[in-house]
Amino acid sequence: MTSDLNLKFEQGGLTILVTRTRGNAVVTWLGVSDSRNPGAFLNPIVQRLVDELKDSSVTVDFTRMEFMNSSTVAPIINLIKRLNANRIEAVILFKNDDWQRTHLRCMQTITRVLKHVRVEGREAST
């Protein structure tokens, strides 16, 4: 049985909140990721999340992000690949609007061949 979990990671304008209750985990990304080298901060978090969430179903929610630069994409792909490699059932959520649409389509293309991870676009709330 998996225990409940609450984690918070922050750097600059980026906050990542992790909650797990009864085997269902939500990883919510908030704010802005505009670091030149976000992998230095994000890759150790990715490893910890994969280790902590092995017995959970996971939702990774980017819908509340205000902005992420292209350098942030590589750590996100790392997360997606590690979730899949560890057979963690995961749904990755993006807003289907403006700047997130490009990331949504890119991630949908990448996950098309993955067995345990899928990407969904949500309509933006007005």
Structure write-up:
The protein has 126 residues and is an alpha/beta fold. The chain has a single domain (5-122), classed as 2-Layer Sandwich (Transcription Regulator spoIIAA), CATH 3.30.750.24. The protein has three helices and seven strands; from the N terminus they run βββαββαβαβ. Strands 1, 2, 3, 4, 5, 6 and 7 form a seven-stranded mixed beta sheet that branches. A hairpin with a 2-residue loop joins β2 (14-21) and β3 (24-33). α1 packs parallel to α2 (73-85). It is globular and about 35 Å long. It starts with a strand and ends with a strand. The model has no long low-confidence stretch (mean pLDDT 92).
What distance separates the N and C termini? 40 Å
Specify the structural class.
Answer: alpha/beta
CATH A-level architecture: 2-Layer Sandwich
Topology as a string of helices (H) and strands (E):
EEEHEEHEHE
Supply the number of helical segments.
3
CATH class: Alpha Beta
Reported by name, the CATH topology is Transcription Regulator spoIIAA
Q: What is the rounded Rg?
A: 14 Å
Instruction: Tell me the domain tally.
Output: 1
Q: What's the rounded overall pLDDT mean?
A: 92
Shape: globular
Strand content: 35-45%
Low-pLDDT stretches: none
- Helical content band: 25-40%
| Major pleated sheet | 7 strands, mixed
Kindly report the name of the CATH homologous superfamily.
Answer: STAS domain
Total beta strand runs: 7
